Amino acid sequence: MGEGVFKQRNGMVAVDIVAACGVLTPGQLSGLARMAEECGVFRLKLTSRQTLVAVLGGDGVDKLVGSLPELGLKVSPYGNVVRAVKACAGNSALCPRSIGEALDLGIEIQERYMGLAVPKDFKIAVAGCPRGCTDPYCADLGVVASGRDVFDVAIGGYGGSSRPLHGVVIARRAAKEDVFFLIGHVLDRFKALGEPGEKLGRAIARLGLDPFSPDRPVKGDEVKPPEDFTKFLET
Amino acid sequence: MRTALPGGVDLEKIISRLNNICQHCDYQGTPDCKEPACLVGFSRKVAAYAGQRGLLDIPGAHGLVPKGDFKPYYPEVVAPVLAETCRQCKECRDNHNPDCVVALVRTSMENTILSENINYPGSVFMYLAMVKGKNPELAALLGEELRKK
């Protein structure tokens, strides 16, 4: 597994730092700011994958990287692995448009799968509603909340390409545990069937969707109205 | 109760037009007034619940829209509510959600007059064209209401 530490054109080094789907506590942010100053960081850049790139001279890299675990942060894995998960601010406490707990699910997915080796980089995006601020249909695997505790899952998207692809939905209204089953299944099949350097979307184009589809039914759950609403109706 | 929801949906305006229908109803204030089974009562409940919770959507609520309310409704009293749903609609287009509070009221009001619901296209302009296709009289009343300030 590669790590997100890259030599830059200007001779400096970029360190890609990953938090919980882009969520930082004030303590993490101030701690990182302090370390950035101590290590001589030149600039910090927010990335499209909700990570944070610190650009600095080579001398400070080891110290910066060494300080990250204490802050609850880590260097982003890189190369042909499951990358940092992109999740929107969709949950019952934050985005008023969200219909499910996307941020919490995204963080859990990242904790479980980030860094897992696969034939080609594997990007996961989680969105709390069909508006899809995290572009779930452009990710190798996209999860979109379709109700309070149910999610649609799409696979094979490939947004960053001159031949872009949209993901194909393989399950609708899957329960959270089924989302994890689906992710595990797709990753297993991708590891078994994908050629080295082949994106999942290209593997699906070559082999068809069936080999990647779930091998057991995923129970689609009917949306049930909130219990307090049904009680409210009767009052 | 909040009268404005995220996105600026003004519930007060919807509720006041719904109340106007109730004022014309023979059952109002009698034991036969059963809100959960009544299309107008259901709409009022939806708006009140959304206002209390600050919600734009009530997941699964479209499945609870009453199907057995066969009271006679007059297009003249329903059109102002439908017009208000058009004014409050955020025109989400592809992201239209049938469990949106505005959509729940619209669906209920359609059921008072139309024999079947209109598959809302997420756009007021397209919706008006679809109403005209199903019920030109209602579309004309709706147009008149929408021209009012």
Description:
The complex is a heterodimer of chains A (235) and B (149). Chain A is 28% helix and 22% strand. Chain A has 235 residues and is an alpha+beta fold. Chain B is mainly alpha-helical. Chain B has six helices and no strands. Chain B has helices at residues 11-23, 39-53, 75-88, 101-113, 124-134, 136-147. The mean pLDDT of chain B is 90. Chains A and B meet through helix 6 of A and helix 2 of B.
Summarize the structure.
The complex is a heterodimer of chains A (235) and B (149). With 235 residues, chain A is an alpha+beta fold. Chain A has helices at residues 26-38, 61-67, 102-113, 176-193, 200-207, 227-234, and strands at residues 2-3, 5-7, 13-18, 41-46, 52-56, 74-75, 77-78, 86-87, 124-127, 141-145, 150-155, 168-175.
Low-confidence stretches of chain A: none
Topology of chain B as a string of helices (H) and strands (E) = HHHHHH
* Helix/strand order of chain A: EEEHEEHEEEHEEEEHHH
Distance between the first and last residues' Cα of chain A: 59 Å
The tally of beta strands of chain B, per DSSP, is: 0
Report the span from N to C terminus of chain B: 26 Å
Q: How many alpha or pi helices of chain B?
A: 6
Overall average residue pLDDT of chain A: 94
Shape of chain B: globular
Global Rg of chain A? 19 Å
Name some characteristics of this structure:
heterodimer; A: 235 residues; alpha+beta; five-stranded antiparallel β-sheet; B: 149 residues; mainly alpha; 6 helices; 52% helix
Write the layout of secondary structure elements.
The complex is a heterodimer of chains A (235) and B (149).
Chain A: E1 2-3, E2 5-7, E3 13-18, H1 26-38, E4 41-46, E5 52-56, H2 61-67, E6 74-75, E7 77-78, E8 86-87, H3 102-113, E9 124-127, E10 141-145, E11 150-155, E12 168-175, H4 176-193, H5 200-207, H6 227-234
Parallel strand pairs in A: 8-9, 9-10
Antiparallel strand pairs in A: 1-7, 2-3, 3-5, 3-6, 4-5, 10-11, 11-12
Chain B: H1 11-23, H2 39-53, H3 75-88, H4 101-113, H5 124-134, H6 136-147
Helix pairs in contact in B: 1-2, 1-3, 2-4, 3-4, 3-6, 5-6
